[in-house]
Structure formats: structure tokens, C-alpha cells
Automatic annotation (TrEMBL):
Cited InterPro entries: DUF317_SPDY
Domain DUF317 positions: 61-112, 140-198
Protein name (Swiss-Prot/TrEMBL): DUF317 domain-containing protein
Biased composition (Polar residues): 250-262
Pfam families the UniProt entry points to: SPDY
Amino acid sequence: MSKRQQPWSGWGSAAHPEQHYLIEPRYLAGGGDLGHIAEYLRASGWTDTTRRSPATIAFVSPDRMLRVAYQPPGGWQIQGASTGPGSSWQVALSPQTPVEIVAGLTDTLTKARSAHAPNVWAPLAAHGWNSERGPHFTATSPDGNAMVQYVQGEPGQQHWWIGARNEHGSVWNATATSTTPLHLLQGLTSALAAPEPVMRPRGHVPPSHRIRTTSVSVLPQQLSAWQQARTAAARAATWARNHTTATRSRPAQPTGPNARTR
């Protein structure tokens, strides 16, 4: 795009395209922008508690029952408080877990649970992942670089393990307690197996021969618009959910010719 064709952005200045890369498979793309998750949670009505926490990012759900935090070098800690025996749960994801995959879980935290029974394995099977029943139930990506495993052991030791590796070794991994709600894990595996590439800026492309990259030029306002569209969708969904809840909680008003008026 020539300077004459570039969008005007103010007196004496012009917005210049920045080089980014579309990376696939997404599970080898590297960590990404933490704001992808933080801004969505904020737009969904979660409370930002970062100032009161040693974590880089810390959010608490409106009902105070859920917590999402990112703290290097440990990475992501996502927790659900106990509401009864054995109901507390935790998911830990290492720092280089792509934020788009983490968001598969954290976005699901903000939404109403579907009436359909969750199936953690269904998104993987739909995208050609190979499943194997052995000592542990395992699903492996078609290229062999990512894995989801339900580790069976002694009572109380069962857990989920998810991870990805390239030619240099492990890139990231995640563990989840066996009590983690399955619809949250389905959100995670849906994001994990999605075939769409994710975007990273120049200088943030992992050094690996197992990824495919496509160079693209992106205007800063395009990046801002994409983020704003994501947060706007979160605000709209939150408003709709709160409005529905408020409507259902209102007492029914009498109707008909004998109804009293106030």
C-alpha cells in the first residue's frame, strides 16, 4: 500500500502497516498478548484484583467463586472455589500456552453452561486427532505435536494433562484436576484443535521448523478494532445474561379484569 493509499490518521501523521505472522498449528505459536484474556474478563464484569495480588494479571468472577491469574514464571492459575465436598478445581497452564487456547477455557467461564452434555474429546475427534485407549485415555494431534490425556491412577490422583512440543522439546503444558467441570475442558480442547491460525507480531515467532507462517501487514487500528469487537461481544453477552436473570427474578404481575392496579 502506497503512502497515498494509507488511511489518514491525523495532521502530519500516517498509520503504517506492521508486519505480523499467521502461525499454524496454533498450539505451537507461543504465548501471545495477555490482554486477549484480561480485556475479555473485564468486559464480562469480572473484577480486576491485580493491584492486590502478586500476579501480573488477577481477576475474580462477580460471584467471587472463580479466579484467573497469570504470574511468571509459573504461568496461568485458574481456580474454582468449593461449594461442596470435592467441588473445588484447578487448572494450571505454563507461560507459553497460547492465549487463544487459554481463552477457550476462560471465555467459557463467563458464559452460561449449555444444556447439552459436555464431551472433552469431541472437538479433537472432529479435527482428526487420534485417540488411544490404554492405561490412560489419550488423543494426539495429526502431526503428533500436541496431546490431551486423562491420567488414571490411584483414587484422588486422576488428572488431565495437555501439552505441545516441537523439535526443541516441550513448548507448554497444562494440568487440570479431575474435578474440573467438563464443559470448561471442552472449551479448552475446542480452542486447542481449532484449525485457524493465530497471529503474532514480528519478533514473537517461535524458532521452529514445525510451524507454518504467513506474513501479513496489519494497521494498528485494525488490531485495535479486532480487540474492541471481542470485548464488545463480551459486554453484549454479559448484558443479555444479566437482563435475562433480572427478568426471571421479577415476581409475576396479575393480569385480567380483576387485577388490581397500583
